[in-house]
Amino acid sequence: MKPEWQVWAKEAKEEFPRANSALMPLLHRIQLEEGWLSDATIADVAQLMGLPVQYVESVVSFYSLFHQEPVGKKVVHVCVGLSCALAGSDELMHQLEQQLGVKEGQTTADGAYTLLEAECLAACDKAPVAQVNLRYVGPVAPEDAARLLSEEVSS
Amino acid sequence: MNTKHYLLRNRDVSHIDQIDVYEANEGYAALRQALKDYQPDELVAMVKKSGLRGRGGAGFPTGMKWGFLPNDGRSRYLVVNSDEAEPGTFKDRELIEENPHQLVEGIIISSYATRASEAYIYCRGEFRRGAEQLRRAVQEAYDHGYLGKNILGTEFSLDLKVYRGAGAYICGEESALLESLEGKRGNPRLKPPFPAVAGLYGGPTVVNNVETICNLPPLVTYGPEWYTSMGTEKSPGLKIMSVSGRVRRPGNYEIPLATPLRTLIEEYAGGLLPGRTVKAVIPGGSSVPLLMPDQLDTPLDYESVMKAGSMLGSGGCIVLDDQVCIVGATARLVKFYREESCGKCTPCREGTYWMTDVLERIEHGMGQNSDLDLLSDVADNIAGKCFCPLGDASLGVLVSALKHFRHEFEAHVAGHECPMGARLYDTVNH
Ligand SMILES: Cc1cc2nc3c(=O)[nH]c(=O)nc-3n(C[C@H](O)[C@H](O)[C@H](O)COP(=O)(O)O)c2cc1C
Ligand code: SF4
Ligand code: FES
């Protein structure tokens, strides 16, 4: 457990004092620093929140943006929703898989990228759209896959 | 075509997301007026008179919803649903990213009207910039005396907090949203009791959509007569339609309700690509039945779209042209529900899985004739048998696609391939 986590837990509980409302804000904040939520992290959070480990684990596993595996420096979400599919999202995904040498759901060996599919990102006007570390990039035509990967994103 | 914007004023005024620009353009004037000229109940009456209906999908009258709060002295909550994730819908994202103060002002007015002392914005986890914009706007509103204790020197006090989801469409359903806001898995709750009676932390709660609440500042400024001067008697006012798919200018368009679908597609969204024709339109987000080319003159108001056999829903309008494979499009939409089923009840969890599997099989030319009946069978086992509306939502497009385009499904089976050569990557055996 990192010392600042106790401060963060206190702040989250001050902002959201009721029920377990401080839990997700705390998980978000820790994941932003750590990149993902390991079993050890989940146990630490459970302790900080005074909740059973199984409870925190069950919440974490429900939400797709909480990562229970290490992820790359850049997490690339490619929207494969219908409007994006109509604009070539599947081809974009194939291009990215080829260029990164991984399949959807995997992280490159050098830890630089994780490639994930997303459901409609509520940006269908930018189809096909992607997010890099939850920052929108789009439209990204399949032939612009390389540009997407090299895009500078603020963390 | 409408040129002046009300809800999408960010299109006319640059940097309106900055508080000084917002204030310089009459920002927070509606709040001042509401606090000065109206008692809370008068505001509720005004909203009832305007006929404003919820923009989250169901179109429930907002004033009536506010009127359901019991008068039992318990403190009340206003929760704003910014979990927008219904495929084809992207209006709330623009509203929060580009004009967050409009929402904040709407929340303060709505909280005053409903006598809520705490308000929450439940912001979709993927909306990273949206959440940043909202947090900044909320902080600025505190700094300027629009939030906190004794707002603008009145007796009214309000705290507003921004809470981030973490990736789960089901949390857009109001009871699942409240579970998530309480730090739990986002499984829907049994209703009744409805949130008005037992909502957040068990207290009386109003849950409203972002766009619904964004209507409040202009409503106070221009009055209910302005609102009822647009649209129809049962669907007055303005609606933001998100248009995507095969049109030249995908985007959000603010229209007076009852604007014909054809006008939205051809004038606002710039029409189709050269040489293409409309095959079908999903008018109100991924959960609603298809409208066919002979229905393009349908006025976009709640009752007309319903009469045409579909729903205005969230206003997510996806246009499919003659180059779109209906089997592939349906497969992709049903897959969405498979991914987002919360897993609480079997018909939804298993049914969406099987339907996706069968649809992808047909799309890839590996379907059999019996698969069409199998699809109808599974759909029958979902319809009306699920714990929350997500199960039924997965059927809207599928059932109407099977009805109008059965021949296309059959052609896939008979020819052992997609006649349009559509390529869809297989999501089932991933
Ligand atoms: C599966 C499902 C997803 C939903 N998603 C949203 C959503 O993203 N945003 C929203 O405002 N309402 C959504 N709703 C509707 C809400 O449950 C609720 O009716 C709405 O927020 C009420 O606000 P309104 O009266 O202002 O429309 C969803 C409903 C269901 C069943
Ligand atoms: S219908 Fe689907 S989403 Fe709704 S409770 Fe059942 S499993 Fe969950
Ligand atoms: S379908 Fe990709 S953003 Fe909506």
Short description:
The complex is a heterodimer of chains A (155) and B (430). With 155 residues, chain A is of the alpha+beta class.
Note down, in words, how this protein is organized.
The complex is a heterodimer of chains A (155) and B (430). Chain A is of the alpha+beta class and 155 residues long. Chain A has helices at 3-15, 23-34, 39-49, 53-62, 82-86, 89-100, 145-150; strands spanning 74-79, 113-118, 130-132, 135-137. In chain A, strand 3 (130-132) and strand 4 form a beta hairpin. The model of chain A has no long low-confidence stretch (mean pLDDT 97). With 430 residues, chain B is α/β, with parallel strands linked by helices. Chain B has 3 domains: 9-228, NADH-ubiquinone oxidoreductase 51kDa subunit (Rossmann fold); 238-321, Ubiquitin-like (UB roll) (Roll), CATH 3.10.20.600; 326-415, NADH-ubiquinone oxidoreductase 51kDa subunit, iron-sulphur binding domain (de novo design (two linked rop proteins), Up-down Bundle), CATH 1.20.1440. In chain B, 42% of the residues lie in helices and 12% in strands. In chain B, helix 2 packs parallel to helix 6 (100-114), helix 5 crosses helix 6 (100-114) and helix 5 packs across helix 7. Chain B starts with 18 loop residues before the first helix and ends in a 15-residue tail after the last helix. Bound molecules: flavin mononucleotide, iron/sulfur cluster and FE2/S2 (inorganic) cluster.
Summarize this structure as a short list of keywords or feature phrases.
heterodimer; A: 155 residues; alpha+beta; Arc Repressor Mutant, subunit A; Glutaredoxin; 2 domains; 4-stranded mixed beta sheet; 7 helices; 45% helix; 12% strand; elongated; B: 430 residues; alpha/beta; Rossmann fold; Ubiquitin-like (UB roll); de novo design (two linked rop proteins); 3 domains; 4-stranded parallel beta sheet; 8 strands; binds flavin mononucleotide; binds iron/sulfur cluster; binds FE2/S2 (inorganic) cluster; NADH-quinone oxidoreductase subunit NuoE (chain A); iron-sulfur (chain A); metal ion binding (chain A); 2 iron, 2 sulfur cluster binding (chain A); NuoE-like (chain A)
